[in-house]
Amino acid sequence: PPSPPPPSPPPPSTPPPSTPASRRLAQSALSEETTGAHARTHSRRRLEGLGCLAANGAVNYDSTATFDDGQQCIWTEIGCTDSTYTDYNSAASVMQEGGCIGSIVVRGCTNSRALNYDSTANVLSSCTYAIRGCTDSTAENYIPAANVEDGTCAFWAANQTAGCMDSTNLCYNSSATYNDGNRCFESQCIRRLGCTNSNAVNYNSLANVDSGDCLVVISGCTDTTALNYNSAANAADNSQCTYGVIGCTDPIAANYLAAATVNSGCQYYGCTVSSSVNYDSVATFPVSSIATSIGVCVLALEGCTDSTASNYVSEAAVDDGSCEFAGCLDSSYVAFDASATVPGTGANGGCGAPVYGCTDSRSQTYDSTANFNTDTECVFIGCTDSTAINFDSWAEDPSGTCSYVGLGCTDSEAENYVSAATVDNGQCRVVGCTDSEALNYLPKANILGILCVAVLEGCTDSRSVQYVPDANVETECTIFGCTDSA
Predict the structure, then answer these.
(1) What pTM, to 2 d.p., does this model score?
(2) pLDDT tens, 121-176?
(3) SS3 of the chain
């Protein structure tokens, strides 16, 4: 019988993910293909029809192959192939679309603390750091390696103290009289800047002076909605984030959720009408939206809330302005009540039976038994002379005796001063300058009897070149002369 047809070849190999491992495998396979072993086996594979059938992307595409087992193709690495750019990929064999996107490589020292720091450099090369010391080869403490003169060169004599005189050095000796350069450059004395934090990613075990640029990676949850959000984290690892159950955590709320760990949206039953007696400021559900028996508002009872009023309503919660106060409304009666708004109880609307007479105790005709005042009954006798010491402003009858004993000018500076006066009569005559802008102005003067002196500003020191002889108000004076007391 005829032989069965050969099986259909498998689809061409697909490129694996571009990883460092796949690149090493590709490079190794490519190297193997270019070795003698490849030459020895190539003819056998061609005879068998085994080879790479991937025409797009494989560097060893074989147009004569009829069978590909998925392990024959060697794939290219796509990237920046120009070594003059910062994104150069040494493993890439095919330039990426659009070319290199990095910056042109500028090699130089990128450490700003170095002597040869290059601010334009973006790729670190050799840096030269300051080595302080004596650069004078004729000095006793000459340091050949020094490249920054520190002013410590010395030519010492006997009986002097040797030591490191560089104040920036870790072995600085303040009592040294001459500089021992060798001491300054002992390994434990040289300042080595760097990160001294062993937990930092840029930790420098050789550094003995911290440079202040330590970078400590803090990995944590950076999702602000998570329960364990870490505001100090600078490396996001949200796989650590834990989230709570959102719900109402208040057990007195209507929608309390026992399983909730993050409080949100609590609702409370109650009266939401602020004018009600049982108004609940915490309530979120109005009366109309809840069960009839829960949170029903009780409207406040209006009425007189003043307990001193005759119509006081003890149950009222809102005063309606209807309070009435009973009492005598007739001001002619002794019992008159100015706060009363309605007649009182008893005789004559609370005023009592009228007893006519003078009810003003200042009057000579005052009647203590009277409760109804009659102006015609009261007589007010007293001194009506306002200049007298016993003047009565309420007196109506001038038959009273006025007294003038002790009345007079009590100002000792007045020209009509009366030393025996005990009550000032307001008629003191004080002589003085009455011009408020004058130098000798006297505020209480009421008689102009002396010459007012005008104000003249100027220097009143005769030693000054600015001296003004007629000046009476001092201003700035300048006096020239030797000011050196030595």
Answers:
(1) 0.23
(2) 888 888 888 898 888 887 777 888 888 898 888 776 666 777 888 888 888 888 88
(3) CCCCCCCCCCCCCCCCCCCHHHHHHHHHHHHHHCCHHHHHHHHHHHHHCECECCCCCECCECCCCCECCCCCCCECCEEECCCCECCECCCCCEECCCCCCCCECCEEECCCCCCCECCCCCEECCCCCCCEEECCCCCCCECCCCCEECCCCCCCCCCCCEEECCCCCCCECCCCCEECHHHHCCCCCCCCEEECCCCCCCECCCCCEECCCCCCCCEECCCCCCCCCCCCCCEECHHHCCCCCEEECCCCCCCECCCCCEECCCCCECECCCCECCECCCCCECHHHCCCCCCCCCECCEECCCCCCCCCCCCCCEECCCCCCEEECCCCECCECCCCCEECCCHHHHCCCCCEEECCCCCCCECCCCCEECHHHCCCECECCCCCCCECCCCCECCCCCCCCCEEECCCCCCCECCCCCEECCCCCCEEECCCCCCCECCCCCEECCCCCCCCEEECCCCCCCECCCCCEECCCCCCCCCCCC
